[in-house]
């Protein structure tokens, strides 16, 4: 007899794989029900003498999925439903092992095992009526629509199955978790720390010892030890503290203290909290590099090209007062580094990373060339704002951002660099202003006619 006919016979008998075997007491109660089913059983075709009947293990193999025995009823599932699903999964695994390899029955059993596991996962992770926005511990969670399976829950440290599970992402710190883990979160959003404390730890791995933490994780306070009992202690190279395996996933990040002191960009292991904090801070200009390590500019060649930002600050007044430059929005060339048109002191870690790779030097050179071309060649209004050396009064029109000029810090007058230093670095314009002030406030002398 064909397998499909046996499957039809099995389903018409209304056998449920979740029903337990009938005991002696239940047999008497079911006696009356069996008499009503005799008529329907007699109508079924009989099996040939060589075909075995379905045993209890093969009842589990069918699982009645076409009748949707596992569809979600109204209300919540009880724990017994999950236990029965797990029992059915284990029995289905046993059936797969007992069946001949590469047979059609084994393939059908594998498909049914997959459906059982999906149903079990739906019970663990209900997804109806989930709100799109949740606010917890300063996190602002949005329900994700992506079906990617490459994400990992930051709470339970397991894979997020986007096809069948609902999951959320914090728009501030990108914390990801299952919807079922959402109410179990105990870590506040890192973005709040960035807003209130936007500064780096500039000591290299400031370790204080595991005993100062009472042999507990610095974040969740779980017991940890260097011997791995009860949990492995993992050190964060940024904070110098020790964390458990749930709070420290051996993520790698560039350490700001090692960059500004040693110009060292090798990524090192950090905790999850430190990794998110460094990721949010990477583009923030909070480093006064000349104050932290002024000698770094003398020993790092890549930082020499960054000094072009000083010339860009001298070009900024030209663009602010030029109508054509404002319409062309030339200053938007530096919109990703807004601090470059505000000062020449502050740096971000991203600036130093790009300087190390050479991208920042190339970008600044292109921007500097574009700005200088507008001022000196393209715009007549900007050309008219040039200077003439007041010492030699010869040569071409000078601009403060030219490499061969010097600018007086007092009156902003522009000179040839050679002329300025040949005159003992004294500005003639400032000297004339000083003499004029002295003559205005000088007391009148005695009257000659008297």
Q: SSE string, helix = H, strand = E?
A: HHHHHHEEEEHEEEHEHEHHHHEHHHEEHH
Largest sheet, strands/sense/barrel:
4 strands, antiparallel
Q: How much β-strand is present in the residues?
A: 5-15%
Please estimate the helix content.
40-55%
Main sheet: which strands, in order across? 1-2-3-4
The best one-word shape is elongated
Averaged pLDDT, please? 75
Give the CA-CA distance, first to last residue. 147 Å
DSSP strand count: 12
Question: How would you describe this protein?
Answer:
The protein is of the alpha+beta class and 450 residues long. The protein has 18 helices and twelve strands. It has helices at residues 3-12, 24-29, 31-42, 56-62, 79-98, 104-124, 190-196, 256-262, 272-281, 289-292, 296-299, 308-320, 323-328, 349-357, 359-378, 380-383, 417-422, 428-441; strands at residues 133-136, 139-143, 167-170, 176-178, 234-235, 242-243, 251-253, 268-270, 287-288, 346-347, 405-407, 414-416. The strands form five sheets. Strands 1-2-3-4 form a four-stranded antiparallel beta sheet, with no helix packed on it. A hairpin with a 2-residue loop joins strand 1 and strand 2. Helix 4 (56-62) packs across helix 5 (79-98) and helix 7 packs across helix 9. The radius of gyration is 39 Å and the shape is elongated.
